[in-house]
Write a structure and sequence with these properties.
Blueprint: H1 3-20, E1 28-37, E2 39-43, E3 48-54, E4 58-60, E5 66-71, E6 74-77, E7 80-91, E8 98-100, E9 103-105, E10 108-113, E11 120-127, H2 128-133, H3 136-139, H4 146-166, E12 174-175, H5 191-199, E13 203-207, E14 210-211, E15 216-217, E16 253-259, H6 260-269, E17 277-285, E18 291-298, E19 301-306, H7 307-314, E20 324-329, E21 332-338, E22 346-347, H8 348-356, H9 361-368, E23 373-376
Helix pairs in contact: 4-5, 4-8, 4-9
Length: 382
């Protein structure tokens, strides 16, 4: 091969690698990927290094599976007790990945015992931009319009950054569940969502120079909610706004019918002492028409309950939002509602609707987070 051909091949490879991999943000995210397990299996397609034990580090060949367990004495690798200063850290070639129970993760993985328990936790430690690659396609479809994907990338990055800044000394910053953001590791990556991360790299939403807590939800049902109605604080950029953009999607409206006894059993499981359910009706609603409080009349008395608590008791996927009406007939309660989720911040299906109408991701973000601006991470304070 001629020298100039080699030169262009190398140049092309460098450019391709740069395109496929978002630039490092130099911000480390610590994500709890396994909260409690009696046993974990680690491996890697390339050589795996395990440190934190004596002797340390230990190297294992590609594809060799290590079985990690715990007992009162500490940690064991393949049944052999190992002396640890804290937990184990598993890492491999930067271009490769670590497998934990057959799921692949970029970066490194820490294994440690849960406080006061014999079970194990696994924490994935990786660059913020790499973390986002495993989030976007878990939260929305990667086939959605690119401007919706970019909006989600900025929102997910800002949410994660706020968690990292607020919890600097914690064992982990985020979980891989709806408690934080859905995160599926390397297997959840997609070329289109990767591109959205790449093209918004390092951009976050700020208000007065600080990254904001960018909450989001599936569908608002016509109007987003004030953050103060859901959590015990307020923020100028998390006020409810009208939204007509999720109206024509299947998640906009929902209906579910439940027997009174099913509702009673759900409430009993959460510690509410209730008799036979006789009536349920709203007491007051928020500006966005979501139920702030409702009353449950039953054969033993009555209960006044927050709408969000009622939704929690019955199940978030069953009662999809607190914007609902209630009908009762022959012992059956029928809930007819709009939207899916708490309603604060970005309406994901609304973002898709705006992108379908050719709005840019910047305009989408301004609509759902009024008063914010796009800033680079290195420009903001804590």
């Amino acid at each position: 091969m001629r020298l100039r051909h080699i030169f262009w091949l190398v140049l092309f490879s460098l450019g391709l690698n740069s395109f496929l991999s978002p630039p490092a943000s130099a911000i480390e995210a610590r994500v709890l990927i396994i909260e409690s397990a009696s046993r974990l299996t680690l491996s890697s397609p390339t050589r795996l290094q395990v440190s934190g034990c004596f002797p340390s580090p230990c190297w294992y060949p590609p594809h060799e599976k290590l079985h990690i367990s715990s007992d009162a004495g500490g940690l064991r690798i393949d049944g052999q007790w190992v002396a640890c200063t804290g937990g184990l850290k598993a890492e491999t070639d930067p271009a490769s990945y670590v497998q934990v129970n057959q799921r692949s993760y970029r970066g490194t993985v820490e294994i440690c015992k849960q406080n006061g328990k014999e079970t194990l936790q696994a924490i994935n430690i990786l660059d913020l931009e790499e973390y986002l690659r495993g989030v976007i396609a878990e939260e929305i479809s990667p086939q959605w319009p690119m401007e919706a994907l970019k909006a989600q990338a900025v929102v997910a990055r800002t949410f994660a950054l706020r968690q990292i800044l607020d919890n600097p000394e914690q064992l982990f910053h985020l979980k891989n569940t709806n408690d934080s953001q859905m995160y599926g590791g390397k297997q959840a990556e997609d070329s289109r969502s990767d591109l959205a991360v790449q093209e918004t790299a390092g951009l976050v939403l700020t208000y007065q120079g600080r990254a904001i807590p960018t909450f989001y939800h599936a569908a608002c049902g016509g109007h987003t909610e004030d953050v103060s109605e859901v959590w015990s604080y307020n923020h100028p950029s998390l006020q409810g706004v009208p939204c007509s953009y999720c109206e024509y999607y299947p998640v906009y409206a929902w209906q579910v019918s439940l027997k009174g006894e099913d509702i009673r059993q759900a409430l009993l499981k959460w510690g509410f002492q209730v008799g036979e359910i006789e009536a349920i009706f709203p007491l007051n609603r928020t500006m966005s028409k979501r139920i702030r409080q409702l009353e449950i009349k039953h054969s033993w008395g009555r209960i006044i309950m927050e709408g969000k608590r009622f939704r929690q008791c019955l199940g978030y996927d069953l009662i999809r939002s607190t914007n609902f009406t209630i009908k009762w007939e022959n012992g059956i309660f029928t809930f007819q509602g709009k939207g899916w989720g708490h309603g604060v911040g970005l309406c994901q299906w609304g973002a898709k609707g705006m992108a379908d109408r050719a709005f840019s991701y910047e305009v989408i973000l301004q609509h759902y987070y009024p008063g914010t601006r796009l800033s680079r991470i290195e420009e903001i304070g804590d």
